[in-house]
Amino acid sequence: MKRVLIVKVTSLGDIVQALPVVADIKRAFPGVQVDWAADEAFAEVAQWCKGIDRVLFAPLRRFKKARRWADLKAIAASIAELRAYRYDYIIDIHGVYKSAIIAFLARSSRCIGYQSQDLGERGAAFAYTGRFGPRPQCNAWHGMRISAGEALGYEVEGPPVYDLKLPEPVRPPFEGERAPVAALFHATSKDDKKWPVSHWAVVGTELSQRGFRVVLPWGSEGERIEAEQIAAQVPGSKVLPKMTVTEIAQMIDACSLVVGADTGFVHLAHALLKRTVMVFVATSPEHCGVEAPFRSISVGDGLSVPPISAVLDAIDYVHSKPPAAAGQGSAAA
């Protein structure tokens, strides 16, 4: 086998958690070229993975919102790039119309996708010449690894390997800061996934008392206002300026601890082997959580608001072993 295309278009957390498929394929087939197709908004995340040989991207999300001619031209150009090589296999681990269209346009006689009951959009099945087995009884992230292995005929082995290398920042994110830094990712894409601002303030205050410098990132104006509400109650905390995806990743990489809701940047913290606590309010930790012994843990049942005490206990857990022991790989992420 010479070349494989992985199709996982969005979103940030899903792409991050799909990246171990690349290391699995390269272990099973030394020398194979692995390309990745993504939305332009998340292409840089795939570009950080050292195992990916070529990242193909187009402004699909932006075109859907704005319908601009320039974006349509960029999509057309990306199709030509997509078809520049013939693939031995195309693996669609996304399973919706847009990923299936990408898989259909790429050049290969073998395109593997999910069974109909496991697809995000059942019409995506038109693109596939073969199917994965039934969705395995495990979390979504390990399930993607198993599905890719089924498609290409290898067994999944060991913990997930993300193999990320971020670009060097222009200057260290916390230059001159002597205290360990804890980032609180209070913001989420959906309101029902939010943990209360008052809870974040209590956790932030406790971390400040433990000697952490608490920082609060944000993306929208509403998130900035909430960050300022939390910071007003947490001694010595700082609301960060608005940053790009790369800048946030570099900031995470400089942190000693990341605590956050079920959001893409917290998944990235886990993949960067940071001490990570993910708080679940309305989504399933069994399906979408993170876990690595003494380094990453998910809190909550996905049906109710987790108590503050549970998050503080989780912070204690990820700090209960020294960095060398806690940072060894990641269990079923």
Describe this structure in words.
Pathway: Bacterial outer membrane biogenesis; LPS core biosynthesis. It is an enzyme of class 2 (transferase). The protein is α/β, with parallel strands linked by helices. The chain folds into 2 domains: 3-152, Glycogen Phosphorylase B (Rossmann fold), CATH 3.40.50.2000; 181-326, Glycogen Phosphorylase B (Rossmann fold, 3-Layer(aba) Sandwich), CATH 3.40.50.2000. It is 37% helix and 15% strand. It has 14 helices and 12 strands. The strands form 2 sheets. It has a 6-stranded parallel sheet with strand order 3-2-1-4-5-6, with helices on both faces. A 6-stranded parallel sheet has the order 9-8-7-10-11-12, with helices on both faces. β7, α8 (197-209) and β8 form a beta-alpha-beta unit. α1 runs parallel beside α11 and α2 runs parallel beside α7 (140-152). The longest helix is centred in the first third of the chain and has 14 residues, at 69-82. The protein starts with a strand and ends in a 7-residue tail after the last helix.
